[in-house]
Each structure stands twice: as C-alpha cells, then as structure tokens.
Amino acid sequence: MAELKFKGNRRMLTGLVVSDKADKTIVVRVETLVKHPLLKKYVRRRNKFMAHDPANECGVGDKVQIVEYRPLSKQKRWHLVKILEKAV
C-alpha cells in the first residue's frame, strides 16, 4: 500500500476493523478513555467510523490507522492510512 500524503492538520485515529463486507469500505471501531465528570473514573467510549479502503486489503480484526477525509458518501468521511497489525 502506498503512503498517502494529506495536507493540513487532520484527525488521525487508530482502531479495529469490525466489518469489511462492503466493497472498498471498512467499519473501524475506535475506543477512547473519557473521565466521568461526577464519578472521576475513566469510562471507555466506542465510536464506529466508515473508512475508504481502495484496495480491499483489510480484514476483520486488523488494527488500522485512519485519517479524516472529504465526504465520499453519506457516511464515509475517513480514509485508510495504513494497517498496523494484521489479524491472526
């Protein structure tokens, strides 16, 4: 996979691929830790993002890095940068 060059400051997130059933699209689950305002303990928040995978090279369970991108469809606003770990 060729390294992509993106202009400006764009959000980059790391997460796990939970679905690769759509053509050239992956669904990535990103987990973040947020401190609860009242309880003062850390709570795990999960978000799912649809990302563009032009080569269809990702599989379920892969750890990937995605970057914010222009809207490609109704829900796709992220682009695959690289695969950090392949699923076993």
UniProtKB/TrEMBL annotation:
Molecular-function GO terms, alphabetical: rRNA binding; structural constituent of ribosome
Keyword annotations of the record: Ribonucleoprotein, Ribosomal protein, RNA-binding, rRNA-binding
InterPro entries listed in its UniProt record: NA-bd_OB-fold, Ribosomal_uS17, Ribosomal_uS17_bact/chlr, Ribosomal_uS17_CS
One cellular-component annotation, GO: cytosolic small ribosomal subunit
One Gene Ontology biological process: translation
Presence of the UniProt keyword Ribosomal protein in the record: yes
Keyword rRNA-binding: yes
Function: One of the primary rRNA binding proteins, it binds specifically to the 5'-end of 16S ribosomal RNA.
Assembly and oligomerization: Part of the 30S ribosomal subunit.
Family: Belongs to the universal ribosomal protein uS17 family.
Name of this protein: Small ribosomal subunit protein uS17
Species of the source: Paucidesulfovibrio gracilis DSM 16080
Taxonomic placement: Bacteria, Pseudomonadati, Thermodesulfobacteriota, Desulfovibrionia, Desulfovibrionales
Gene that this polypeptide is encoded by: rpsQ
